[in-house]
Every structure is written in C-alpha cells, then in structure tokens.
Predict the structure.
Amino acid sequence: MTQLGHYDSIIIGAGHNGLVCAAYLARAGQRVLLLEASDSVGGLASSREFHPGFKAPVAHSVNHFSKSIAVELGLKAHGLVIDVGSVPCVGLSPEGKHVFLNGAELRGVSDDEREAYARYSRQLQRFARALEPFWLKTIPRIGPNKLGDMLTFGHMGLNLRRLGKADLREFLRVFSLPMRDLMDENFDSDILKSLLSWDGLIGSKMAPRSPNNAVLTLLYRMVGTTMSGGVGALVSALEAAATAAGAEIRTDARVQRIRVSGSASGLRATGVELGNGEVFEADWVVSSADPQTTFLSLIGVENLEIDFTNRIKRLRCKGYVAKLHLALNSSPTFGGIEDSGGRMIIAPDLDSIEFAFDDAKYGRWSEHPVMEITLPSVHDASLAPPDQHVLSAHVMFVPYDLQGGWNEATRDALSERIIDTIERYAPGIRQTVVGRELLTPADLEHAFGVTGGHWHHTEMALDQMLMMRPTYEAAQYATPIPGLYLCGAGCHPGGDLTGAPGHNAAHEILK
Amino acid sequence: MKRYDAIIIGAGHNGLTNAAYLAKAGLDVVVVEKNDYIGGAAASREMHEGWIYSSCSYVCSMMRQAIHRDLDLSRHGLMLVPYLGTVSFADDGQVLKLYTNAEVEYLELRRHSPHDADSMHRFRADLTRYSQLIRKTLMRTPPDPVSFKPRDIKELLFLARQFWTLGEREIYEYIRFFTMSAAEFLDDYFENGLIKASMATPGIIGTALGVCSPGSAYILLHHVMGDVDGNIGAWGLARGGMGAISNAIASALQAEGGEIRTHSGVQQIMVRHGKACGVVLENGDEINAGIVVSNLDAKRTFTQIMDRKDLPPGIYDKARNFKIRGSSGKVNIALSGLPKFTNVPENRYINRGGLTFTGSMETLERAYDCWKRGRWSDVPFVESVIPSAWDPTVAPPGKHWMSNFIQYCPPKLASGPWTPEKRDAFGQTVVDRIERYSPGFRDLIVHMEVRTPDDIEKEIGLTEGNIFQGELTIDQLHFNRPFPGYAQYRMPVKNLYMCGSSTHPGGGVSATCGANAAREILMDLKRPNTVPQDDCYDE
C-alpha cells in the first residue's frame, strides 16, 4: 500500500456537486483532491459517446442551476452565459394541437386558460421565491439550537408569513396536493396539465394522483437560472473553476473504501483507499456518492450505530426514469414544431402518466411510455457530427427491478416501444436512427455507481427533505463519523443540476 | 311562526350530537332530516323482514368515551363491545387469524413469519405512540395558523409543545409516518405478504388512495386511533346495529327537549342581510332560527343548498374543489345460517370479529387501479363482520346478518351510469369473493342489498358516497378542514356553522365534530359550555 500525500479535503465523485464543493473548498485555500471513478468528470451530467461520433449527457437540461453559485464561482469567466431566459417547453398533442410554454408566454390554449395560467404561475412563483433562500442554507436540526440555527427557522417563518394571510393559507393547503388536484383545480386542457405537472413528478416515484411530495418538488424546480451551451458547458465550466482554484482532479480513480481510524476519542475518517491500493489522507473526506453507497459500502456498517444503519437502509432509492439516446443522421422534424431547441413532453393527459406509473409499480414498463425529449445537439454542436443530431429522452416510469430482470431482449423491446411512440409525433424519425443507447435505472446504477439508478440519490419526499435528508444525524452535511461529510444529491436540498448540496457542504466544512 | 334558536340540517350522528349539546345549554333546537329515519349513515334499518341491517356504517371505533359518558348514552340504550379478532384471507388459501389473546396471536404470527411475530410488538407500540398525539387534538378546535388572536396562538403553542415533548427523533419519525404510504411504512416492520396486507387495509378504507399512495399511512392511523372500552385501536360493534348509536344520541337530545323532524329535506338555507336565518324545506315550509348548523358535507352545503350569491367570493370554488371521492361500496346480506370458512375454526373470537378478504398488497393496489379506471375490481378488498353471531337483535333466531364493506367501488363507471344490472354484477363479484373462502356461502343467502357510492349519495346525501365527508389528506385535515380559514366550525356566512365529518377531526362515528361545533357555537352565543373535555389530555 502506498501513501500518497496528505490533503485538506478529498472529495469522492466528480459529479457536478463534487465539482462545486471542490471549487469552493479550493477557493478557500484548501488543498483539495477530487477523485472520480470513471474516465471523465460530470457524473450523471457528463457527456459520453454512445455511438461513434455521437455523445450525450444523462442529465439533459440545465434550467435551475443556482444563480448565486454560478456568479460566485465566476462561471462566466469559464465560458458560460447565465440567465439566458426560460427553456421553451412543448406539450405534444397526438392531434397536433400542441401547447407551447416559454416562461410567461403560453400558446395553444384558450384565453381563459391563459389567464388561469397567469394566476397560477404568479401564486406558485411567490411560494417558490419564499422558499428559495433555504435551498442554499443548511437546515438546522430540531432541538436545542444555537442562535444562528434559530435565526434560520425564524427567517423561514418570516418569509412564509410575508406571503400574507391568504397566500400562506393557500400554501399550507397546496403544498401537499397531488399534481392532479392542483391541475384540475386550475386548468381544463389535458396537454397543459401534463406539461405543468411534469416538473413535479419526473425523477421520483410519484404519479399525478400521489399526494404530499409533488408540489414541493415543483416549487424547488421553479427557481434558479438557465445557461447557454447545455449540460456539457456547465460541467466544463465547473471543472475549469475547480481547477483554476487549485483543486486537483483525478479520473479513473475509484474509491474502494473510506479509511476510518479509531482512538480513545472515537472514530474518524482519515482518508480513502482506491481500488488499485493507493491511499490518500485528508482532514476531511467529502462524499458526493449517494448515502447508501457512502455509508453501506464505503464506510461499512461495522463503523456505524445500528439505528443509523437501519435508517440509511430504509432510504427509498429505486429510480423510475430510463434514458434513451438516439443518434440521428439528419435533423428530426416534429409535426407542428418549428423550434426544437426546448423540451418536448409526450404525455397526452394525466391518466397516461398515472397508468404508466401503475405498470412500473408492479415491475413492468408501460406499453404507452410518457417522456420528455430534447435535442442536446441543437445547443452543443460538439455532441454530433455536422448536420446530425442527438435525441435524448427521459422516460417515466421504468422500474429499476423489472419483473424477470433486464436483458438485451427486454431492453430492445422497450427501446422499440419508445421509438414507436416518438415516431408518432415525428414521422420518419425511425429511418434516421443510426445508433441508440438505452439506460435503465439498473444501467445507471451500474454506469454511475448511484444506488437504484435514482436521479436524486434518494426520493425527494417530505420525510427525506430539509433536516431529514438523507436522514437526521447526517442532514447538516456532517455525519456520525467525524471528518466525513456528504455533498451529493442525497443531502438537502436534493437532486437535479442546482449545485446547492455541493455549495452547502463546502460552507459547513469551512465553518 | 315559531323561531328556533338553532336548526341543525341532517340527523346523522354528528347533527344529533350537536343538537344535544345545544339543547343541554338551554337552546331551543330542531334537527331536520330528509329521510324518514334518523342516523344518516349510522342507522339500523329493517331492509328485509326480521333482519336489521346497519345499512351503511358497520363498525364503531372512534366514538369518544367522554361524549358517550357525558350524554349518558348507555342509559339511552347504547352498548358497545370490542371485536375479539380478525381473520384475513390470502390469495393462496393462507389464513391469518389474529385474536385478542397475546399468546395465541404471537403463535399464529410465528406460523407465518417468526420475524413478523417479533416485529408486531414494535409496530403496535409505534402506532399507539403516533396515535397519542392525534388523539389529543380530536376534541380541540384547530387553531388558525395565520392568526394572531391569543386563542389561536395559545392553541398553536399547545400543539408545538406536544410535538416538542416527543423529542427530536420522534418528530422526524412522525413526519415520515405522516407523509409516506402504508406499503412503505409496513415494509419497515414486516416481510410476510399476508401480514402486511392485513395490516395495510385500514390505510385504504373509505379513501381514494391505494396502499402505495403517499398519505395512506395516516389513514391507517385514523382507523386505529379510536378506542372501545379503553382499548386503544380496538374496533367495536353496537348492539342493535349502528343505529343504536344514533338512537341513543337522539334519545339524549329529546330528553333535553330537542325536536327532530324527519321527512324534512332542506331545499335552501335562507340568508338575509348576510346572516343565515333559517331554512326552506323541500315542501316549501320555512323554519326560522337564530343560527343554522349544517351537518351535510362541505360540497353539498355550499353548492347545493345555498345560493351562490349569498356566499363571499371564492367560497363556491373552494367547495367545488373540496375532495370528496366515492370509493367504497356496501353489500348487506341476510343468511339462513352461519357461514363456515375454510381453515377457520368456529369460536367466539371469530364470531365477534372481522373477516377481511385482503389477498396481497398487490391485490389491494390493483383494486385501486381499477377504481382509477372507473371499474370495480374482480378481486376487491372486502371487509366483513357477522354481528348476528353475537347480537341476537339483528336477525331472527338461527339466522344471520353479514355486513360487507367493499373497497373500491367507483361513483361513476367508465362504461356509463350505474344501472340495476351493473349493481347486481358488482354484488355478485363480492359474493364470488366470499364463496371462494366459504364454499356453499351463496346457498345461505336469503336477501342481499347492494349499495354503490351512487346509491349511498342518493339515500344518505353524502356527496359521491364518500364515507368521511371528504378525503383525509393533509390538504383537508386539521386547520385545512374543510377549507383553510374556516376550520373552526364557523362558516363564511354569519350564523352559519358546520358540524359534520367535513370538519375536524373528520370521518368516523366519533360524535366529535358535532360536539366541537357545539362548543364553538355556545362560545359565540355567550352560553356556558356543555361539551366535555376529552379524557386523554395530559396537560
């Protein structure tokens, strides 16, 4: 075993949260080592070649990265333009009566519906803004707190109180509504309902009729900023920012184990051990891996209290989204769509989403998959050869543990079914497909080391949010093992490309 | 023309309770009821000669003892006895027999899973602990969380203190329990499919959620937080059927001088100068009163028997959006003898207990999927009890009456409106389900009465036939029930109150909504409070 130097912090996993955390720690003067198991940085946001000449990132759109992190890390200097405006979103209709949404602009519905949307959107925006400051704060534990902690709670209460009586009452009712009820209360158009529900549901084990968690997820996704250049540009800018600040990044360096040493004063994380036997030591070990991977495989249950282990084990970590990448030899044409640079949603009504979910509950994929499609190559020409394109589809709901198991035949059948569905909206697209890749949640687990292939590492649900994410005793980024911190999507505030968990963890470490 | 102090619309058990407490305070009250019988959904009716059916509600667990005692309901003829056990039937012929005998129950659980037998203690202890907190809120008026009135702040502090004393760990566990699905909650404890399914069924009874829907764990709690004779979580039967409860309360009401008028459906609540002042009956008669109390559900109250122009802006929409989804059916069967069930011995535990045709978690969830699609399941969840095995007053000697509650049954079918043929087909599905576990059951049937949500709505007046007068989800619980800002039993029109299960603490034959509303009314009228405190405060 070789000892290879001592660092202030070692960060496990160069996903976007690992990069953000590394950048902040390095900027504060720490000697930082970022270790990544695969051959490139970015994790689920990294762009991989899935067919010769065609690349695609698993996370396919950046529409709510934290603006203050982008500014603080100077991502502009690394080639990003932030605040490029809203990402257009289209609800595809089988009859060609699409609904177009771009920020406040809504087309394809009646005037009444447009007014209803303006009202709805104003109110939800107010709720989202009231919660926004807390996504970038450590949420203290409930209990005897320090003054600063009490201030966070006070601030939260004040922000909600400032909504005013009527809005606060409405917030306390609406936050737990199922998407379907929220939509039915406000709108009539089926396509519009699916379109607006999408961001409350995707990535989680939630259907339109599931109460309690969807609206909070939606509000979480209503803040933040958009950026030019797509996911690839964000990852390169974050990598550049971390490197420029002095962080050292090593790819192809899979961490096998977090070293824990004991003394009379208790256990402490002291470094990491790679698969090849290399050992690095550090004062702080920061894991952007999901909580189950971090605690159950990297730390090991022998180092944890049984009660804590049980809570980590019962985290709900099974993913329900599959990813299909298509290499297209020409520009696809969706009927009735002129600008295919935004997100396109195939879900003709809320029942279509609900019923797709029902299949997944029992370990099957739906014959009528619902999905979100983008063409990442429209924004990032480097992803495909000239005049050719990459289509990326997030397909809800595809179970992690398929009945009978995943194999080539079941994967092919699902891919075919998805392409058939897309073909309905983009006639002729099948002939232009020159290559494809399907990543089921099980594949995502395998390829990116994320338990269950879950986008958010663990469900975004009320009981796994705030000071309970991933579980109490590990929700303030510090963990029961001194010296070990978490900085991934499994911490507050949660998944998606926001940068917030990485930012918050760095702040805790630097306290 | 006579002017009453208060009119209560609907002689369901909450309306009667409300009236009884108002009458006790010296108010001149009248309860108007559209049917020719009282009790609403808690009624005993002779639907076939010699047989008395608890035609809708069939089991009693939420009834607050403080009210039972205070109104002296035992003297008015009410006798409640707890269930002695529950038998659950799996899809594969397995039977789980849980008797109220700890040693026998443990051995029976062990037979299915030693792991689960040990977990049951933990499960029961946790559920009881969770229910303690809610039980404290049952007979208290919810505070308005956005108000700065001293009373609301005091009540909020009370709740905060209750939470606080749980301790940090328990608070988090509580939030988790409150928001998750019954299926996920049970996964924390059990491994055996039948044990899980049989424990999960209270999580779906009466609700348009499935065992896998987040929020169903709370519904589970709602069904096990009551008590019978001090046994928390026990379910009980009323001698003479559920009507015995309504009749006892009615008798208490009449003893205080209150009046009940049946055959008196309300056409409209009269509002003059922004104040409720009486009702117009369906026959055109007007009754005037100082206050009007509606025991009807929130949707019916505001969208059916009130004029939209009498309501402040926004209320009509709130009522329209109020979630009250029909999801349950009922089949009452008169039997010529006591049915026998395969692998189930005959004993007193079974005779005074529940029979649940549960199948597995997947069977339960699939039944919900059918409801979502506007169908009933071929393998529905059926929860049955044969009260005549213990109670001689509900069937002729040697004959029996079986109550069957079915989850789920849609209020509207995808194939079009309910017809007598479809209703019969639904009833036959239920008989088939039972026959599978009780060969020869069909031949015992003397008379059968099938109720779909549609029938329940038409007869009882519950919108969509929802047994709770509104879904029990967070957006409609406590200070949100029925609407945010109107959870204190006072409605947006002056002198108008609500006292039904659409208000806190929600459905169940608890008499609590009616009592809580009476307390608020008496406060407004500056009369001494006649409503007792609950027993379980440890302030």
